[in-house]
Amino acid sequence: MLESHTHDGLLMVCLLREIVIHNHQVLKETLIRHGFTFESETDTEVIPKFAKFVFDKAHDEEGEQTVTFAQVVTEVMRQLEGAYSLIFKSPRYPNELIACKRGSTLILGVKELTDANSGTFSHDDKTFTTIGKPKEFFFSSDLCAIVEHTKNYLAIEDDEVVHIKDGCVSILKFDYGKEKPASVQRALSVLEMEVEQIKKGNYDHFMQKEIHEQPHSLTTTMRGRLRANDVVLGGLKDHLKTIRHSRRIIFIGCGTSYNAALAARPFMEELSGIPVTLELASDLLDRQGVMYREDTAVFVSQSGETADTLLALEYALEHGALCVGITNTVGSTLARKTHCGVHINAGCEIGVASTKAYTSQIVVMVMMALAIGADKISTQSKREAIINSLPDLPNKVSEVLKLDNEMKDLAESLIEVQSLLVFGRGYNYATALEGALKVKEVALTHSEGMLAGEMKHGPLALVDETLPIIVIATRDACFSKQQSVIQQLHARKGRLIVMCSNGDASSVCPSESCRVIEVPQVADCLQPVINIVPLQLLAYHLTVLRGYDVDQPRNLAKSVTTQ
């Protein structure tokens, strides 16, 4: 989202989807006392008006001495409390532009570097200093947005100020304790992404494309990491010994990333022999959860910029825990601030509802469990079986994608429903949560993922012949329990949709009134990767049939960069 406000010749552009100024009411009251008027209730309108207030005050105090643009912006930063990425442009300072950020995301793309005698941009070392003169600059909140223009970029750090003047650029570091910001040197990074990744190609929507890309994205996630009964994760190899001696492994995330961690938890516990707990980042912060130096905290975020997850990371670092990052975004804040980590390499994901990143996150966490458990003799046979089955997983996902038309037909039968329940258990409790979340996010339909073991503790009261209930009953350790759940729901005339393994339809469905989705059977820890795909397709088709925007759902953003 691009939002802008102007005031008396000062223009402020807010690049990010979400900007929160916590003290905007205090600043607003100050400005009103000094004669400023407001046209909206948005917190961002305070910023350009406060910049004008700073300019006028400094100009009055300095007299004929001109206040610089950088002085105006840094004083505004000194007063703002919250999370933001801002660009300032003003006719009072021609040929100048200033960008700054705090607690949000800001990317600077740099096109066509030159090795002029007076410049210090270099193709060799990519050192970024004050006097280089590239032809074009691009500001964005997402790397995917700049790839069609340039592959050279700089991820701006908190409290850094990018000052472009007369074609030259300088990076300044704002410090509350100092009157003037200090100049800093930064090195450019090179984006490993192709333009084709941000195009829809032959698909109607990005979400549709990303669902169907999963065989490829999973292949990319595993590429170079599976070797003769072993898993090699370069980002973790120097820390595996520490992880194996951890007191606990704590997975921390939000939304889809949390669900992916939930799917991986049973296998991580089984192979590592270490207690594994899960934390929603916001809840961990709210209650200031206990964390020890002997803990390994694993932070999962597709963007690597999720605000609550990053705050939880700071909390874990303060408590001395080993911090591991799992992200899809090279150069993200999460990737830079954790001690070690793994990139999921799923490719650029543009649709707000995460699909291919979710399945790649699960596979990365399974591989992480395999790497951690390499020294456990008791689990070697299972470990080797999983490693040998991983290369075929993309082919199994390709099989599931053939259910596309079947899921569209199911969506047509559900187009009028107002509520949907999804029951899962064991590894597929996470699948139930994630499937319901996808329907909720994009189809704007109330849907809830339920732990099937809790069915009699409330949810059973909702069952009638009109409420659609999806039960995930693929063959695993919980299969017989799920059969019992199906029978109980059928006895109460529930409107059943059952997901089962190929060939199991007759054993799980008590009558022809039960709708069946058959999927390939794989290892239990990998089954969530298979089982989520039909639910992703269902959510996609239900959204399109209802006429909603599947790539930009109402009120949601791809990266939640504020609390």
Automatic annotation (TrEMBL):
Please verify whether the record's keywords include Transferase. Answer: yes
Gene3D superfamilies referenced in this protein's UniProt entry, alphabetically: Glucose-6-phosphate isomerase like protein, domain 1 (3.40.50.10490), Glutamine Phosphoribosylpyrophosphate, subunit 1, domain 1 (3.60.20.10)
Q: SIS domain spans which residues? A: 239-379, 410-553
The cross-references to PROSITE patterns, in alphabetical order and at most eight, read: GATASE_TYPE_2, SIS
- Annotated coiled-coil positions are none
Glutamine amidotransferase type-2 domain spans which residues? 1-167
- One GO-annotated biological process of the protein: UDP-N-acetylglucosamine metabolic process
**Keyword Mitochondrion attached:** no
Q: Which Pfam families match?
A: SIS (PF01380)
Q: Catalyzes what?
A: D-fructose 6-phosphate + L-glutamine = D-glucosamine 6-phosphate + L-glutamate
Its pathway is: Nucleotide-sugar biosynthesis; UDP-N-acetyl-alpha-D-glucosamine biosynthesis; alpha-D-glucosamine 6-phosphate from D-fructose 6-phosphate: step 1/1
The record ties this protein, via CDD domains, to: SIS_GlmS_GlmD_1, SIS_GlmS_GlmD_2
* GO MF, one annotated term: carbohydrate derivative binding
EC number(s)? 2.6.1.16
Which EC class does it fall in? transferase
Record keywords: Aminotransferase, Glutamine amidotransferase, Repeat, Transferase
Xref: InterPro entries: GATase_2_dom, GFAT, GlmS/AgaS_SIS, GlmS/FrlB_SIS, Ntn_hydrolases_N, SIS_dom, SIS_dom_sf
Q: Which PANTHER family match?
A: GLUCOSAMINE--FRUCTOSE-6-PHOSPHATE AMINOTRANSFERASE, ISOMERIZING, GLUTAMINE--FRUCTOSE-6-PHOSPHATE TRANSAMINASE (ISOMERIZING)
Q: Per its UniProt record, what NCBIfam families does this chain match?
A: glmS, PRK00331.1
* Name of the molecule in the record: glutamine--fructose-6-phosphate transaminase (isomerizing)
